[in-house]
Structures are given as structure tokens and as C-alpha cells.
Sequence to fold (498 residues):
Amino acid sequence: MTDDLILVVGRVETGRPGPAPTALAARDGRVVWLGSAAEARRRSGQRVELPGAVALPGLVDGHTHPAWLGEAAEQVDLSGLDLAAARAAVAGQAGSRWIRGFGWDEARWSAPPHRRLLDGLSDRPIVLHRVDRHVVWVDSKALAAAGIDRATADPPGGRIGRDPDGTPSGLLYDDAIRRVLAAEPPPTADDRRRWLSRAASRFAAAGLTAVHDVCAAAADVEAWRALRAEGRLPVRAHLLVDGEDPALDGALAGGPRRDPWLSVAGVKLFADGALGSRGAWLSAPYSDAPDTCGRPVVHGEALRRRAARYAEAGFQVAVHAIGDRAAREAVAALAAARPMRHRVEHAQVVDPQTVTALGRAGLVAGIQPTHAIADAPWIAARLGPERLRWAFPWRSLAAAGAGLVIGSDCPIAPADPLAALRAAMAPPIGEGLSFEAALAASTRGAARAAFAEADRGVLAPGFAADVTVVDGEPRRADGPPPTIRATFVGGRATFGPR
Ligand SMILES: [Zn+2]
Fold:
């Protein structure tokens, strides 16, 4: 018998206890053998030798926004720019669609963002997402196109920023963003396929063998299906459809679908916003803004009712919850629903009772370790010293019995699973994980959250030959970071080997 792939490396981390082999063989997409480099030389088949490299079970990004990631390449990147540079970048943007941008952060700007600072920069409407994606900054043309003026009331779950006289300032928060996005001429099916295809190639180059698209538009489901049908997917995808998409019911018609490459598994709901923009819903006021506890989005009876209905139909429900009050509501709603490996996404500030309840209900916590690095400079000011102890409680969640899944939240943070592993092992705030626990949350835990643990998540005979090969030592949280050498999905190279 000839192997489709014989991979010889310095060490294979199998994801299971026991001595580490140095070679593996795959046939028909699955691992058929693990052993030593010497034994591997006696096997016949396509041989790939990467001396000194470390093979890991295929890394999964459990929290991605692939369409945004692919679309972002066609948008203005405002990351790290000051106000003048951001305005210049917007003014220089070519193209015919609306001008879209992302990544601005006003923390050190000379003036707060305002529509007047964008008016006149272009003859096309301008919509710019803040770095946390929970605020947009728009010009007067975009406000007019969306029909937002001083008579417009704040929508449920959102807020329209206003000047003292009530005129919209050009800042839109959380669900108020949907209104301006809905006014833009919609992307075509070709646009979506191009975005997802570009994102999928980036994922493969980042060492990822699978991703969870945690807020797919209903139209993205079609685009993913088209790529799957064309055999053009270099990465497996697990989809949760945006619960506020008007075409949600159509995308879910026929019930959940599980396929090794593409599963349409459930629904994403939002219980609150983000901490940076004080949209995360806390049970007591912000320490640095005593007049607000943040903003609930879907909560209370509505959240319980919707979670129960989707779960009854066999769907997995994921609830975005960053503040402690949002986490408590999410856990209560999901624990009461029919068990379907429901997920609390972010689980960033969680009080001890809710940690226990989350674990006891067998829920999954979708965590983003690199957010702990991004939030470190200001999170203590938002929460105060008492609640800071509730931030990023990863070890406590695991000890309580929660399933942990590591994700990046790309494009809000880079799709870099090795950076996420490092951040998980040594976060500047919160509870760090061991290498074994962090690797499991990027592999086995992610597979379990996608109902695929019987096929994926470890390197053992019978499991899918999904392998991420790295140069450098992934067990270390310091020193030079490891880099991706090759990615294999089902025994086939999707990136490298170089
Ligand atoms: Zn996200």
C-alpha cells in the first residue's frame, strides 16, 4: 500500500499523552500510521521531510469573520493612524463602491471623530468601523443615505451619537450600525465569493485547517456552498448565521447540515457590545463612566425564547457576551435550552457564579486570548480592581467544566493561531493556560464545538490528517515566535511546505 503523504519532522505533538513520534503517514485523508523517521523511510509514498519542525494537530480558529477579513483587503486600513493620516487615507481611496474603512482608534487623537471631519473628503459616502467594530464613523452623505437625521430615534440595541442640539454627530453604536450598512448597495454573490476565497487562502497560510465563521451573513452561506461545490476550499468551515439577518430562516431551512468541509450549524445572537466603546453590558456601572452600565442588545425573555426555539430545531446557539451581566443572561438562556453545545462567545468578564453555571450546563466558552493583550492598557479603568479579577477567567472556566475554544476574532485581531496560543499561555491579565490546555482549545475543543471530535483534533490513526507544521518551539511563550512551515488538510498541502 502506498501512502498519500509521509511527513517526517523533528517532533509530532499528537495532542495525546505518550512519547512523541517523529513521522506520520496519511491515506485517503486520514492518519494511518505514526512512528519514527527511520521506520518512515521503509514506507512508500509521497515523502515530505521538514527536519527540526514540529507537527501539531491542525490548528482551528474558533472565532472568525471571514467575509470581513476578505473584504478588508478592499477597504482603507486605519489601524494605528492619527486623525490627519486617517483623513488623508480616506481622501485617497479609489473605487466605485462606498468608501469603507476599519481600525480607527481615537484614543490619542487631537479631536474626537465627527461627520464634519469626513464631509468633503470624497463624492462617495464614507463608513469607517472603529477597531472594535462596535462603532462606525460616517459622513453626512452616509447619514442621508440611511435616512438618519435629528428626528430619528435610537433603534433597540443601538445608539445614534448626537451633538448637543440633537443633530447626529456621525457616530453610530451597535445596532444603529445596521441601518447605515443596509443603505449601501449590497455586495454581489461574486463579491462574497471573492472575499471568502481570499480569506480562506489567508487562513491556510496562517496554518489554519478549520475556522468557525461565527456571524455569517445568510448570503455568505450560499457563497461558502459555492466554494465547497467547486472544490476550492483550502480550509474547513463551521458556520453560525447572524441571527439578525433578514434572510436567516432561508439560510437555516432544512435544519443543521454537517459536512466534513462545511457545516451550517446554528445561529449567532448578540447580548451586548464591546468594552472599549463601553457597550459591554455590566451589572454595575463602568468604573470610568459611572452613568452607564453599557448596553444590552438581545436579552431577557427575548434571548431565552429565541435560544430555545433554535435549539429545539437542532441548531447550536452562540451568544456574544463580553460584560458580566451579558454573560449571566447568556448562560441562563443557553442552560435552559435543549443542549446543543451552545456557546458563549468572548466570555470576557464573568463572575464566579456564572463561571460555575456555564460549566455545569456543559456550555462552550469561545475565548480570544489576543484580546487580553489589546485590552490590557485600559481594561482596569473600565472595570475597577474588584471586577478585573473576573476578566479572562480561562482556567476557572475549564475547571468548571466548560468547553474552551480559542479564536482570534479576525479581522479585529490578526488570524494568527500561534500568537493566540502564546497569548493563551501568558496573558498580561486574566488566567493563563498550560500549553496542553491551550493547544487542546485550538484543536480538540474546537473540533468538539463543531461536533467533529470523532474525526479531528488529535493526530492518531483514523483521524483526519489535518496538520499544522511550525518552525520554532510552540511550547514556549517567550523568545522568537514560531512560524508556519506547512499546512495540510486531509493529507493535502494547502500551504507550503517551504
Ligand atoms: Zn467577533
In short: The domain at 188-456 is CATH 3.20.20.140 (TIM Barrel). The pocket of zinc ion is lined by residues 63, 65, 214, 409 (CB under 6 Å). The two ends are 27 Å apart (CA to CA). The chain has a mean pLDDT of 96.
